[in-house]
Amino acid sequence: MREGRRVWRGERGVVAAGARLYEAAQGAVGDHGRAVEAVRAALKPIHDAAVARELDAIPVARLQDVTEGRLRLGYVEKNGFGTVGRVLDAGPYRLRQIPGVGQRTADQMLAAARRLAEAVHDVVAVHIDVDRPTPDTTALVTALHVLVEAGPDARRAVDRATALAERLGPLLADAKPAAGRLGMLLAGREKRDRALAAVDGLRTLTDEAVDAGLPGLFAQASVDLLRGPSADDGGVAAWVDFELRSAEYYSLLAEISGRLPDAAAAEGFLPEGIAERVRDQRLDDTHRRVSLRGYQAFGARFALAQRKVILGDEMGLGKTIQAIAVLAHLAAQGRSHFLVVCPASVLVNWTREIEARSALRVLVLHGPDRNDAFADWKGRGGVGVTTYEALRGFPAPAGGEVGLIVVDEAHAVKNPQAKRSQAVALWAERCERALFMTGTPMENRVAEFRNLVRMLDTGVADTLGGPGGQGTPVGSVAFRKAVAPVYLRRNQDDVLTELPSLQRTDEWEEPSASDEEAYREAVSAGNFMAMRRAGYLRPEKSAKLERLREIVREAGESGQKTVVFSYFRDVLSMVRDELAADPALGDRVPVFGPLDGGVPAARRQGIVDDFAAVPGPAVLLAQIQAAGVGLNMQAASVVILCEPQIKPTIEHQAVARAHRMGQVRPVRVHRLLTTGGVDERLVAMLEKKDRLFDAYARRSAVAEADPDAVDVSDTELARLIVEEEQARLGVAEATGQGAG
Q1: Where do runs of H (alpha helix) occur along 314-417?
Q2: Helicase C-terminal domain: from which residue to which, for each copy (predicted)?
Q3: d(C-alpha 406, C-alpha 424), whole Å
Q4: Hey, which residues does 562 pair with through a beta bridge?
Q5: Which of 360, 358, 312, 356 is nearest to 335 (CA)?
Q6: What is the pLDDT of residues 632-645, one digit of tens each?
Q7: Quick one: pLDDT at residue 422?
Q8: Rounded Cα distance, 427 and 392, in Å
Q9: Could you count the other beta carbons within 10 Å of the beta carbon of residue 425?
Q10: What are residue 402's phi and psi, to 5 degrees?
């Protein structure tokens, strides 16, 4: 009998331990639920106000669309109910007081208005104005701050707590008789057997949970989720953190509110068969320290499921984070060696991001010690980060050694004749997986995109036709379907509903007499590059420089930071000198740069960091080829393009440095142009290129032309423009210099 009591006490102990574990798990889940509900409660008045503003902007005539023209609304508008919002506010009684509006019309009108209101409610996104905080937005940012600060560890703890509680609950119910001696004595044989089996299950679960450290994990999650703001803080810490990592706040907000992007758009409009396979791909987050948005998780799964792919997401959607998610997953699956190949300008950024967003070991395989670092990486593993140039000096793996090669700004290897392209192609062939990343995979010709695809999948590349375009799928829809097995692209407008507005302004200036003279000399000399920067060659009388100063002054008065892009170093030097000499700016607006190709890669990100660290207005000067790729400039909310570029993608990349995930302010882009010359021709050409790019690189069905006819070469284009300008101005024939 004593032995039986010892068994019961042992069983009671197991049940008690299981109950404590269940309580801790439920506590973590409950604390997370309360934090989420706090966000929902803070969001509601802000969202309701946004919906009301939207409905007040919809004319009442739109109710005709909902009712297929059955309503007569003339009397309604004449009586002051000119918007859908006013109709809803009026209600049935006031509407029936309008002459000509009876019960039936009022009911139909309100039903139609409610349908519109429901649609608006589902699509309106909340934008948090960091420069004009209100009590409501402060409450929302503070509530979100709790969850963001708790971080991915708390979320993982809650997920595990949820799963564990679901298993513990039924076992505790079945094991209840074993909690006391009397319960077991009174229970029938079947109940006793079920209770003993449940005790065994509880023992196994509690032992596994203790071994995995789950009780401590749940306790820490509860502490983090219950940690509120300081009583005298007033939300300041939350606002500061929001500005630093707004992408995480908006990601949580989208998830909690359920206002996620259109599923098809988030999945890049892939064919259903491929999309389903990607959805089924598991994604391990053990070594990852950042939460993913839904479209980012899909992108990482796409790379894993399809093995060798091009991620062509538009600039600013977090391609780096998606790559890190793939690396972390593969590391959790036991893979040890990975390689990232990128331009030298973003090498530092890659190492920072991997260290901050994952638990993976990072080694820089660049510089004078790169061979020693390569040997260390080969022996011990980790993520090696190197440049295109350095890669050529490393021996390619024999096959199967490297779990993944990531190639950033992959359009840099579109030319199969280039040595860097051949080195990347060899590594991609020898690695089990390859992830090419570029927001601009088809800068000018689909043939260039085909070259990238051929490094990953010769079968898909063959469906895109040969060098002459034979067999190329005709039309953008057919083209996108053909490349779907290796290519995924999403656009900002489709998946970042919270992104602040982007306002583009073409600043057309009448050239001064001095500008005209400099331009005419450049045309006469046949110097295309001099034609492009003629508006700056005589700075003392430059119409463009005068407008640039005005824009920088306006931004400075508003406390905004400005980034100035130009293709030409000498133009940036002139801009720097002019801003430094401007008495309206003086020391009040510091100028950083120029950031150009001559600045060492390790220093480029440092210059951007220094620019961002200035508490007030500042100006960053950047050569568009050197800084338009890879560097994040969300601190700037004003962008100035000193001249139009030959390729639209160069401009898009530059603007996307500022207008990207994490930007909290509306971005204004000013492109400086002069009338009557090369700028007009380049703008018209850029618009045509943009339309063709949209048709093939984005989801579209508008272009049905041969995709190989996208463009003529830049050199040929320059020659044509020079000849046409010489004819227009009636100057001597070109010598051809500088046209390339």
Answers
A1: 319-332, 347-357, 370-380, 388-391
A2: 547-708
A3: 10
A4: 619, 638
A5: 360
A6: 788 888 999 999 98
A7: 95
A8: 10
A9: 19
A10: -100, 125
Distance (Å, rounded) from C-alpha 286 to C-alpha 439? 28
Whole-angstrom distance, CA of residue 92 vs CA of residue 465 = 64
Backbone angles phi, psi at 72, to 5 degrees: -105, 115
Q: Which amino acid would we find at residue 184?
A: M
CB distance 31 to 125 below 8 Å = no
CA 375, CA 365: separation in Å to the nearest integer? 10
Paired with 309 in beta bridges are 435
**Beta carbons of 130 and 208 less than 8 angstroms apart:** no
Query: Smallest Cα–Cα separation from 254: which of 184, 712, 262?
Result: 262
**φ/ψ of residue 432, rounded to 5:** -65, -35
CB 218 within 8 A of CB 28: yes
Rounded CA-CA distance 128/257 in Å is 14
pTM assigned to the model:
0.68
Contact of 572 with 623, CB cutoff 8 Å? yes
Q: Report pLDDT digits (tens) over 53-109.
A: 989 888 877 777 666 656 667 777 777 888 888 888 888 888 888 887 788 878 888
Taking the CA atoms of 40, 42, 48 and 51 in sequence, report the sign of the dihedral they define: negative
Q: Is the Cα torsion angle 606, 608, 611, 614 positive or negative in sign?
A: negative
Residue 562: pLDDT band by 50, 70, 90 thresholds? very high
Token representation of residue 405 = 């090669």
d(C-alpha 356, C-alpha 632), whole Å: 15
Domains assigned to the chain: 2-49+130-241 (no CATH), 51-123 (1.10.150.20), 264-494 (3.40.50.10810), 501-676+710-729 (3.40.50.300)
- Spacing of C-alpha 246 from chain mean position: 12
- Which string of b and e fits 654-682 if b means at least 16 CB within 10 Å? bbbbbbbbbbbbbbbbbbbbbeebbbebb
Evaluate if residue 515 carries a pLDDT over 50: yes
Report in angstroms the alpha-carbon separations of 259 from 255, 268, 294, 438.
7, 18, 11, 27
**Which tokens sit at 739?**
């046209």
- The 10s digit of each residue's pLDDT in 237-273 is 888 888 878 888 888 888 888 777 778 888 888 999 9
Residue bearing the bigger pLDDT, 233 or 219:
219
DSSP state, residue 337: E
